[in-house]
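Incident log, structure service

09:12 report received: a user says their structure output differs between two submissions of the same chain.
09:20 pulled the input from the user's history:
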Amino acid sequence: MQPKLAIVAGGGSLPLALAEACRNCERPYFLLGLEGFAEASRLKGHPHRWARISAVGRVIATLREEAADEVVFAGHVRRPSLASLRPDLYTVRLLARIGAGALGDDGLMRHIASAFEAEGFRVVEVSSILADTLVPPGPLGRLAPDGTALEDIRRGLEVAEALGRADAGQAVVVQQGIVLAIEAAEGTDRMVARAAHLRRAGPGGVLVKMAKPQQDRRMDLPVIGPDTVEAAAAAGLRGIAVEVGGVLLLDRNAAIRRADDKGLFITGTEPVSCRDQARICP
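09:34 re-ran on a clean worker, output below:
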């Protein structure tokens, strides 16, 4: 029998996709919904429990009660303010131990993963369960980026990599070499909507999204899906370029169909260090 999987669920559809994959292959699992982030309607119909994001000790106790062996973190989670945190004793000790290492989201997630492993759980990647969600090289639909779009992608990769190294965000919109918007705490869709108000005349811009270079890829890989395509189309963008093997594509067929219908490309790109020239996968 496969090891029982605990799906620590934030917002969005990714936790549900993982739960359905486990159900389809008859793997034992349960969802641990994070209060204020996971949607009850998505968890309904699956075995689930709830916990506060700041109650790490309670989360670990719940995993033990459920006899979970492996843990996967999935879904949108916005880091709470210190004023609203209300940590349990375990979390207080964890934060005290890591100190300044918790200043950035990536650093905090690495420490959380290490804490779960120290308690005897194996932290696994989403892609180990949903293997077909990682974006491959090259165009995925009928359309491909032209020369102008390729230059915007190169520029976007340079900026997104620098942004990621600062542990600040994972996406950028570039049009005709001009950076229209970079992702911060608002998330990709809101960033894309903001870029719509800054668009220039001529060929539309490109959304470029990639994992942070230093990111623990078991935690918080960036995600796109049909809603991302809709947001890009509404903003007047001409395409979406994402890192090969570093970005998850949910509802793949639906996203590609929607991109084709909207006249957008989706393509997998392979960045190298921003000290060198970024190259685009053929």
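09:41 both user submissions now match this output. Likely a transient worker issue. Closing.
09:42 reviewer note: The longest strand covers residues 29-34. The chain is about 35% helix and 20% strand.
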